[in-house]
């Protein structure tokens, strides 16, 4: 019904806003815990929920060639891009070690480019 659609839309919006606020906190332990439990669901949401794709994509975290221990967001990655870099570099692999041995990745690393590792 119309009422349930409106309620669903508002609940989704409030949930996404709350997650965004939690992610922005200096102490990101709460968001890291959430990410560990629901990161795959957010990735699936980016694929399936066209209405909220942009909001969901801002919540994603990635393993990066420049983030040895932690994860990075797309926003942080873009902020670190080189002046002449026009593309976001990424590779999908089973593990970070497998991704890092790709000739494509090795070439980018030699040029000091950051690569996102899409692993899982």
Automatic annotation (TrEMBL):
Q: Which domain of life is it from?
A: Eukaryota
In Pfam terms, one family for this protein is: HSP90
Q: Which InterPro entries match?
A: Hsp90_fam, Ribosomal_Su5_D2-typ_SF
In the record, what terms sit under GO molecular function? ATP binding; ATP hydrolysis activity; ATP-dependent protein folding chaperone; unfolded protein binding
Give the family from UniProt: Belongs to the heat shock protein 90 family.
Q: Which UniProt keywords apply?
A: Chaperone
Query: Which PANTHER family does this chain map to?
Result: HEAT SHOCK PROTEIN 90 FAMILY MEMBER
Question: Is the NAD keyword given for this protein?
Answer: no
- Organism of this sequence: Chloropicon primus
- The protein's name in its UniProt record: Heat shock protein 90
């Amino acid at each position: 019904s119309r009422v349930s659609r409106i309620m669903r839309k508002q609940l989704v919006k409030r949930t996404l806003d709350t997650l965004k606020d939690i992610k922005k906190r200096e102490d990101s332990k709460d968001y890291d815990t959430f990410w560990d439990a629901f990161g795959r669901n957010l990735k699936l949401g980016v694929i399936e929920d066209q209405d909220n794709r942009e909001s969901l994509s801002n919540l994603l975290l990635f393993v990066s060639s420049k983030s040895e221990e932690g994860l990075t967001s797309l926003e942080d990655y873009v902020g670190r891009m080189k002046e002449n870099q026009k593309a976001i570099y990424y590779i999908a692999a089973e593990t970070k070690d497998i991704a890092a041995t790709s000739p494509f990745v090795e070439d980018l690393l030699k040029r000091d480019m950051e690569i996102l590792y899409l692993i899982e």
